[in-house]
Amino acid sequence: MSTILPAKYNIELYRRQDYIKKFTHTDPNGTPTNFTGFTFASHIYNFERSKKYTQMSVVNSNVLTGEITMSLTDTQTTILPDLSYYDIRVTNGTTSYYIMSGTITAYQGYTP
Description:
This protein has 112 residues and is mainly beta. The protein has one helix at residues 74-78; strands spanning 7-8, 11-14, 19-24, 39-45, 52-55, 57-62, 67-72, 83-92, 95-107. The longest helix is centred in the last third of the chain and has 5 residues, at 74-78. The model has no long low-confidence stretch (mean pLDDT 92).
C-alpha cells in the first residue's frame, strides 16, 4: 500500500454520552481497503501533543470492505476539553501509517 496523507475528519460530540461512527476507508481510486491482518491505534491529545486524554477504540467492522468503527464511552467523552486532536494509525507487520486525523469539539449539554 502506498503512503498517502491521512483523511481529515473533524468530530463534534457531547460530553457524558457515547460516541460511535462507522467509516469505509478506500484507496485513492475508491476501492475499499482490505484491512485483514491490520491493527488500529488512536489517541486523543492536546495541540502541543504534551497531554494524552484517552484512547479511542477503533476496530475492523468488516475487514474486506474497509469498514472501521471508532467509538468513545460516556466516561471518556466526559474528560475531553472543548477542543482536542486525534489520529488513527494502522499497522500490518512492520509497516504502519496514519489513515485519519482531525479535531474533536466537545460540547456540554445542560440536562443531567
